[in-house]
From TrEMBL:
Cofactor requirement: Mg(2+)
Any single Gene Ontology cellular-component annotation: cytoplasm
Superkingdom assignment: Eukaryota
Catalytic activity: 2-(2-carboxy-4-methylthiazol-5-yl)ethyl phosphate + 4-amino-2-methyl-5-(diphosphooxymethyl)pyrimidine + 2 H(+) = thiamine phosphate + CO2 + diphosphate; 4-methyl-5-(2-phosphooxyethyl)-thiazole + 4-amino-2-methyl-5-(diphosphooxymethyl)pyrimidine + H(+) = thiamine phosphate + diphosphate; 5-(2-hydroxyethyl)-4-methylthiazole + ATP = 4-methyl-5-(2-phosphooxyethyl)-thiazole + ADP + H(+); 2-[(2R,5Z)-2-carboxy-4-methylthiazol-5(2H)-ylidene]ethyl phosphate + 4-amino-2-methyl-5-(diphosphooxymethyl)pyrimidine + 2 H(+) = thiamine phosphate + CO2 + diphosphate
Protein name: TMP-TENI-domain-containing protein
Keyword Oxidoreductase included in the entry's annotation: no
Residue intervals of the Thiamine phosphate synthase/TenI domain: 9-206
InterPro entries (UniProt xref): Aldolase_TIM, Hyethyz_kinase, Ribokinase-like, ThiamineP_synth_sf, ThiamineP_synth_TenI, TMP_synthase
Transmembrane portions of the chain: none
Organism: Linderina pennispora
UniProt keyword terms in alphabetical order: ATP-binding, Kinase, Magnesium, Metal-binding, Nucleotide-binding, Thiamine biosynthesis, Transferase
Length: 513
């Protein structure tokens, strides 16, 4: 009978990374104690006798812990030590030959890079797939480059589709670590059925870690978080109590004073800091990469605004998002003028590949650029065009593509988590006459999203939109407001003065999906 196996945290070894004074067997031992559930011995440069000797040593450890041991590429070594199975790549022995030699009781995993590879492996009877490469890696030279979580999802979805009622099992590999583990597992869930990968495969994140045991334990914690996460695809029934949830999120900010860390542009930095304070948050505007790790433990949410992008800001943004992702702190991305220049488009696409972002907030032109629609465009920082035929559908499509909540601002704001989509019809046209009102919207979302992010970032995003738009309406009605200058000050005042009762009585939201 085939051994039951658990792919949750899959350690692939590389003895070239073992630090002086340590042995591979010790590392495997520690890693299993930290939570590794399956081990693959991968010796790319060892001759047969060294490989065999290493395999025997590592097998003593895996047997002691009752964790399966697979052998990379070498069926002969697997047979010699009676390993639990093998892992083979596209250039190795064909699956049917490996199966013939090993028999049905052994585990055979196959590396796949494309839908076609996945289909062949599934139909050929692979026990699991190793889909790669997720990210760039220092561990081996990649023939085809990395696909990012969205590319891995595409292959995984196809594998699930062709494997019928009992989906094949799969992990992804390549550049995976504790910082990006949650992002990878959330972003690779299938669109239909919301099916996650079975786990993650890593080499350097454990073998080269200072403490393989701690590294494995942190990875297990992150994987468990991702499996339990409700960040996407909630059921529409959960929306019944949306109004009271919005009221609760609004109040939570006033009670808990979330620390909203911004890396934003100098044009709006002061307005955003004041808006955050007025709504009940505590603004932090630290931009340097070197201080993000120290700040991260106390940050409630992170707002990344690419308004005046430059290389050192990008470094700070990367460092901050990496830390936020490790702590599962909500990240709000404002892709200002994405689509206006190649540089911005490229940076945003790299960010969305590498980091988990929980809310994207943009105007119609920015959202069009991210979703790949030519119905709207960006001119400078403004959206131009006649509008989307189906704005709610566009927002939902981007949400499903990026696996996050998407807010599209405009005369009507559209907000979707891919499952439910809402229109927020509050707001005043004077908001469009001052610089920074869009950026303050990102701040508002960041202020409210923290409290509910782990259960429902959609609620936090809608709360931010309703609160800021009501403040705009209230400010515009004031007799002392004569135009953009007086509106700007009154806008902050009305954020400060807004009450939960007003919010609940005056919000104009409509559920569209
Ligand atoms: C779990 C897992 N997935 C993929 C691979 C890569 O295997 P392969 O394509 O055979 O490349 P090498 O490992 O031989 O460099 C893997 N080893 N494990
Ligand atoms: C062994 C291997 N296979 C890959 C694939 O894409 O199939 S990537 C890879 C190396 C993964 O190492 P690390 O976790 O250190 O990035």
């Amino acid at each position: 009978m085939k051994l039951d196996f658990d792919l949750t945290l899959y350690l692939v070894t590389d003895s070239g990374m073992v630090p002086a004074g340590s042995t591979l067997s010790q590392i495997v031992d520690e890693a299993i104690q930290g939570g590794v559930t399956i081990v693959q011995l991968r010796e790319k440069h060892a001759d047969t006798s060294d490989f065999l000797a290493q395999a025997k040593l590592v097998q003593q450890v895996t047997k002691r812990h009752k964790v399966p041991l697979l052998i990379n590429d070498r069926i002969d070594i697997a047979l010699a030590i009676d390993a639990d199975g093998v892992h083979i790549g596209q250039d190795d022995m064909p699956l049917h030959e490996a199966r013939r030699l090993l028999g049905d009781d052994k585990i055979i995993g196959v590396s796949v890079q494309t839908r076609e590879h996945a289909e062949q492996a599934v139909l050929g009877g692979a026990d699991y797939l190793g889909i790669g490469a997720c990210f760039d890696t220092q561990t081996k030279e990649l023939k085809q480059g990395s696909q990012g979580p969205a590319g891995i999802r595409d292959v995984w979805e196809h594998a699930v589709e062709v494997s019928g009622p009992r989906p094949v099992r799969a992990v992804t590999i390549g550049g995976v670590n504790s910082y990006n583990a949650v992002h990878v597992l959330i972003c690779t869930r299938t669109t239909r059925g919301n099916l996650p990968l079975d786990g993650l495969a890593v080499v350097s994140a454990i073998v080269a870690a200072e403490s393989p045991r701690n590294a494995a334990a942190i990875l297990r914690r992150q994987i468990a978080f991702a499996f339990e996460s409700a960040w996407i695809a909630r059921t529409p029934a959960a929306r019944d109590s949306i109004r009271s949830a919005i009221g609760d999120a609004f109040e939570a900010a006033r009670q808990n004073t979330p620390l909203v860390q911004h890396i934003t542009n100098p044009v709006v930095i002061n307005d955003c800091a004041n808006a955050c304070l007025a709504l009940g948050g505590s603004p932090m505007m630290a931009t340097d990469a070197s201080e993000q790790a120290d700040l991260a433990p106390v940050v409630s949410s992170l707002v990344i605004n690419i308004g005046t992008l430059n290389a050192w800001q990008v470094d700070g943004m990367r460092a901050a998002m990496k830390q936020a992702n490790l702590r599962n702190t909500p990240v709000i991305l404002d892709p200002v003028a994405a689509g206006a220049t190649k540089y911005r488009s490229q940076i945003v696409s790299e960010f969305l590949k590498e980091f988990g972002v929980h809310v994207i907030k943009g105007n119609a032109g920015e959202i069009a650029a991210l979703v790949g629609s030519d119905e709207m465009h960006v001119r400078g920082v403004d959206a131009v065009g006649c509008g989307f035929k189906d704005p709610a559908g566009i927002v939902r499509a981007l949400s499903l593509k990026e696996r996050c909540v998407v807010v599209m601002t405009g005369p009507v704001d559209y907000i979707s988590d891919g499952s439910s989509t809402f229109a927020v019809k509050n707001g005043h046209k004077l908001q469009g006459t001052i610089t920074g009102s869009g950026c303050m919207t990102g701040t508002a979302v960041g202020t409210y999203v923290y409290a509910v992010a782990h259960t429902d970032p959609l609620v936090g995003a809608i709360t931010g939109m309703v609160a800021i738009n009501l403040a705009g309406e209230h400010a515009a009605q004031r007799p002392d407001v004569k135009g953009p200058g007086t509106f700007r000050a009154a806008f902050i005042d009305e954020m400060y003065n807004l009450t939960k009762e007003q919010l609940l009585a005056e919000m104009r939201i409509e559920q569209l999906h």
